[in-house]
Amino acid sequence: MFFGPTIFLIIILLIPVMIIIGMYNNFVTLRNRIDNAWSQIDVQLKRRYDLIPNLIETVKGYATHEKELFEKVTQARAQAINAAGVTEQAQAENALTGALKSLFAVAEAYPDLKANQNFIMLQEELSGTEGKIAYARQFYNDTVMKFNTMIQRFPGNIVASMFGFTARTYFGAEESSREPVKVQF
After folding, report:
1. Which of 16, 40, 11 is nearest to 135 (CA)?
2. How far is Cα 170 from Cα 41, in angstroms, rounded to an integer?
3. Which of 167, 168, 165, 170 is nearest to 141 (CA)?
4. Has residue 185 got a pLDDT over 60?
5. By the 8 A CB rule, do 107 and 67 touch?
6. pTM of this prediction?
7. Which of 13, 37, 45, 76 is the Cys-Cys partner for 99 at CB 3.0 to 4.6 Å?
8. Selection from 88, 100, 109 nearest residue 129 by Cα
9. Residue 75 neighbours by CB distance under 10 Å
């Protein structure tokens, strides 16, 4: 079979176009996965926010002297609900996690509370939700890493700049969240 010079030239010109189309589609796929992962984090965070008031009310019945701690958890919850953007959300969530750790640490001082079925159930639900949040964060960060790597590598950086794809922010933990929880009685 014989190809004329025109057909050969068309094939040579189509190869870069096909590469650009393929890269563009990969960027779109990863961007949508990042948005989906963020939505999964948001769903789990909403579940976490809904559990916290019930947990506080249960603990209040036993630990009436921990008013300052309840206010701290409530305030951290409100800040987390109102946080916008990945960085601010991550900071607010880390503060809320620290406040919840303090709440559970204080609960250790009240044996009747630790044996309360409602408290145990809420603690287990919150623990399960924390696991789901951790998984969703990991998936989000893994997808952001793939997306950012593709944007930074050649020739992806050229295609990304042509279509306005920019690097995404990781959902990170603050250094302070890695410190042990301080419990004061």
Report:
1. 40
2. 13
3. 170
4. no
5. no
6. 0.78
7. 76
8. 100
9. 13
